[in-house]
Amino acid sequence: MGREEIDTAPADDLIGHSTNLVGLPTRILAGVAFNARPLPTHISGVREMNGGLFEMLELAGDLGEAGEAFTNYMMAMFGIDQEQREPGERSGRRRFRSSYLRLIKGWGYDSNSPEGAVLKGWVESRFGIFPTFHKERLVRLAPDAWATYVTEKMSSRFHNNSIMAQLDLLYEFCQWTLRRFAFPEESHVTLFRGVNDFHEHPIKAKLDRRRLVMRLNSLSSFTAERQIADCFGDVVLMAQVPREKILFFNTILASHPLKGEGEFLVIGGDYELCVMP
Q1: What contacts 13, CB < 8 A, 6 or more positions away?
Q2: What is the DSSP string of the chain?
Q3: Are 158 and 106 in contact (CB under 8 A)?
Q4: In the prediction, which pLDDT does 6 show?
Q5: Number of domains, the chain
Q6: In the prediction, which pLDDT does 81 show?
Q7: CA atoms of 137 and 29, how far apart (whole Å)
Q8: 223 lies in which domain range?
Q9: N or C: which end of the chain has fewer CB within 10 A?
Q10: Cα–Cα distance, 87 to 20 (Å, whole number)
Q11: Smallest Cα–Cα separation from 47: which of 159, 160, 174?
């Protein structure tokens, strides 16, 4: 990776809203200093309004039992059909109900899909962090690009079943499982992302030959396996991601659409990354 490649991706200063639902200023939440020393982060009111779920989770003996409790709770709360809980075709006789699993499945096909816009919009709503890319670069002077993103993130097709509340619960469940079962001793998780260029994630600074600060999209896919990242791009980036910036990870549920790639969904902002040799 030459210096010319770095300099062809100028960063935009547009970072996010002045308010969010996690009680920290967005510029702090989206900065490298937060990633280095993260603070416990919760979406306001979610745990308090769903005390029954977290009481059930406390009885779980392992991640599998916790995932089953969460799945059953979500099915009861939001009427999520069996066809949406497991891979396969949905029965045409049932009315479509938007679910977090359908969004994750759509993201797995294409992060620039309407489902991807809804997920990026959830990050924007809850964490205040703007996306950097959806089908094309989202910068200040790109009204058509922003219009496409806003239209898709607000699509009524995906907002008919309290989808934002579903994603709030998914995030809080993820945070609970990361601390209880998945990474109880680690404050950060080493993750990898393969890229072919830096058009989607603008470079903020080059620290040395292999370290740089990059503004990640509001939501990005990473993997815990370096070999998998190699399949997705010529350049592999390594990040130390704080647990507070993880929405979803591969083993969180027994059955879901992203099982095959060891995928983590990472909330964006400015990250210090290492370009792997």
Answers
A1: none
A2: --HHHHHTSPPP---B-S--SSSS-HHHHTSHHHHHS------TTHHHHTHHHHHHHTT-SSHHHHHHHHHHHHHHHH---HHHHSSSPPPTTSPP---HHHHHHHHHH-TTSHHHHHHHHHHHHHH-BPPSEESEE--TT-HHHHHHHHHHHT-GGGSSS-HHHHHHHHHHHHHHHIIIIISSS-SEEEEEEEES-SSSS-EEEE-SSSEEEEEEEEEEEEES-HHHHHTT-SEEEEEEEEGGGEEEETTSSSS-TTGGGTEEEEEEEEEEEEE--
A3: no
A4: 38
A5: 1
A6: 64
A7: 22
A8: 3-275
A9: C
A10: 34
A11: 174
128 in the Ramachandran plot: left (φ > 0), alpha (ψ -120 to 50) or beta?
left
- pLDDT value of residue 3: 34
- The pLDDT value given to residue 198: 85
At 28, phi and psi to the nearest 5?
-75, -45
pTM: 0.91
Tokens encoding 189: 């998780």
**Hey, what amino acid is at 164?**
M
Q: Tokens 């603070």 map to which residue? A: 39
Instruction: Give the residue among 219, 215, 217 at the shortest CA–CA distance from 270.
Output: 215
Instruction: Quote the CA–CA distance of 34 and 2 in Å, as a whole number.
Output: 29
Q: Report the DSSP beta bridge partners of residue 134.
A: 136
8 Å CB contact between 216 and 147: no
Q: Which of 27, 201, 48, 26 is nearest to 127 (CA)?
A: 26
Which residue, 111, 264, 277, is CA-closest to 192? 264
Task: Please enumerate in sequence order all residues whose Cβ is within 8 A of that of 33, keeping only pairs 6 or more positions apart, or say none.
Answer: none
